[in-house]
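Handout, section B. The chain below has 408 residues.
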Amino acid sequence: MATSVSNPRLALTFIIITLTIDAMGIGLILPVLPTLIREITGADLGQAAVWGGIMTTIFAGMQFIFGPIVGSLSDRYGRRPILLGSLFVVAVDFVIMGMAQAMWLLILTRVIGGIATSTQSTAAAFIADISPPEKRAANFGLIGAAFGVGFVLGPFIGGALGEFGPRMPFFAAAALAAINMVFGYFVLPETVSREKRRPFDLKRANPFGAFKSVGKLEDVQRLLVIAFLYEFAFIVYPVVWAYFTPERFGWSEWMVGVSLGTFGISIAIVQGFLIRIIIPKLGVRATILYGFIFNTGIFIALAFITNGWLVLALTPISALGAVVVPALQGMMSQRAGDDQQGELQGVITSAKALALIISPLVMTQLFFLFTREGGTYQPGAPFLLSAALVLACLIVFVTRKRRTDVTG
């Protein structure tokens, strides 16, 4: 049942901006991170990729641990205080990143940032609060659209301001987070009434307890496995792209930023607009199947194409497969009650974060192994692994027992 909000447009605007800033925490640093790591450590590009993978894994580890905790806290205390408090921490975290002079401090900021941006589960729960069940899948597309916009702004800001030094982009992101916090203070309502608030229980709120709790919901365990495998595969873009494209095509930081920006714009269009046409026409189940098949083909193509201009042209087309996550999220949300949306979204965040813990280490090590001197040369190897994982998602999805409801 959807909660009534006096000014839903302003509230949704705040949520979208918040998620965009969260995405910028990833996209912003992609063009400048290799340079910054090499500046601090003196490492070569391959070693910088490994450091980048470690930092991403630490960031994701915090989201894995705190996603369900923060989601359950929002079920108990409401969405508003959790979201506003996180923006304050994010702003401080970006300032620290901009001032960092040592790897240990950069790593510490990934710990802080991972905890602070665990509120994406709270933002998703807010969207579930104000959306009727049949529109949740399409509205969850706004989350992907916001992350797509963040991927546009992040690389472009990172690439442009990076011309003034690899630290400048972080101060701009800190200012955006602080401004949005002030905006949210005035426009964000509370959507969790006192009647719907569920007592906080740490045994249930920790990742394993939360997985056990939501796993009792019909079909959710299998859908979470699919979400994990798919996220593991899709992470190849942000984790490997900044290393893969310079290696194979000789791209500059600017070209890396342009390509990621193009990809982000395309994802925003697909998940913010096209998904609202695709899901009503195909249904949620067929939409997910289409996404799996399409992405498998794209990953295989990226693994073998050697023409940089062709890959750049393929970048916006590849985003047409970005319909899977919101469709899966809507399918799972249908199976949870109003007092469990924060917990469910926290578990989904943890499943994605678990993939983000493991995938960067696997993908960057795979890239290193297939680009090192004296070994088999195939920089596209991570994309072949992603294709295999998406095929596994397809198999798990089609062998599940179907449920007859609005989601299929």
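Note. The chain has one domain: 8-193+202-398. Compare this with the example in section A.
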